[in-house]
Amino acid sequence: MKTQEDICSPPRPKLHRVDSPLETADDGPLFECSLAEAFTATAEKFPNHTAIIDEECRRESTFREVDSFAKSIAAGLQARGIRKGDRVATSLGNTLEGCVSILACYKLGAIAVPLNPSYKPAQVIGALNHVTAACLIISAEANLPFRRPASTIPTLEAFVDDLYVEKISSRAVPSLEHVIIVDNSCGRIDTTPFKSLICWNTLLTGQEELSDNAVSKDDVALIQFTSGTTSAPKGACLTNRNLVNIAINMGRRLNYTEQDTVCCPTPLFHVSGTTLGLAISQCFGATLVFPSEAFNTAATVEALRTQKCTAVYGVPTMYVAMLEYISQSHIRSEDFKQLRTGIISGAPVHASLLRKVHDVLYLPELAVCWGMSETAGAATMSHPYDPSVKRVTSVGRTLPHTQVRVVSRDDPLRVLPVGERGELVVAGYLLMKGYWNDPAATAAAQIYDPVSNEIWMRTGDEGVQDADGFFQVTGRIKDVIIRGGENIHPAEIESILVEHARVMDASVVGIPDEKYGEIVGAFVVLNDASGASTSMKQELQEWVGGKLGKTWVPREVFVVEDLPKTASGKVQKFELREKAKGLL
Question: Where does the record place the AMP-binding enzyme C-terminal domain (predicted)?
Answer without folding.
Answer: 492-570
